Amino acid sequence: MPFAEVNKRGFVDQTFQLLAGTLGASRLAFYSVDESDNLYNFVCRRMPSEFLKAYIREMHAFDPLHVRHAAHKPDTVVRMDYADRYAPPGSVGIYRDFLGAFEVRNTIDLLFRRDERIYAGISVMWTRDDDTPTSDVFDLAEKLHGYIDYNLRGQFRESKPEARRAAMATLHLTPREAEVAELLCCGRTNADIADFLQIGVSTVKTHLIHIFDKTGVENRSGFVSRVMQLS
């Protein structure tokens, strides 16, 4: 892993320790946000893999705290307690049931903006084994946001879509491989990519093999890191 990527992961891990220690939440997830408000590059702490898979595949569409709902509001910390401010009651109910199935009793998202666009966020989740968060805890989250925001800007460069596409071009991908790679960078699963491009999952897997071979990486995270280095 390149030195810059090690630094970024180290920053995220330190931020997780800070939030877990001060807010008393056991599950956390850092994510990047692309220009279409898709979440990608998840880094998680004590997050069940099945939760993340279900979220990426379908449940993100019901998440009232997703950036697509908060993008046009000034809030820096969005709370599940106020979910009805961001999404219809039907979606909120479905998502609350999803959280409950994984023993999550409450959650907030810290949202980070640059040039008025959300480019990253951190989900903070309290499970049934955690102490119930109080108003003081939520106030502390608001205060910590400014500190994290300041330091986050120094760790993560903005990756504009034009820069990412230019990076793709340097990798000599075919047009179809570039389409698959773009969706991969947005955090889409193989099934999602297949549905979007109207091709088979086996075809997606073949494209990924060629993409990884051309870029000299072994997996999805390695490819995303490679593109970020070039963009």
Automatic annotation (TrEMBL):
GO molecular function, one term: DNA binding
Residue span, HTH luxR-type domain: 166-231
Keywords for the protein's UniProt record, in alphabetical order: DNA-binding, Transcription, Transcription regulation
Pfam families in the record: GerE
Top-level taxon: Bacteria
GO biological process assignments: regulation of DNA-templated transcription
Protein name as it appears in the record: Regulatory LuxR family protein
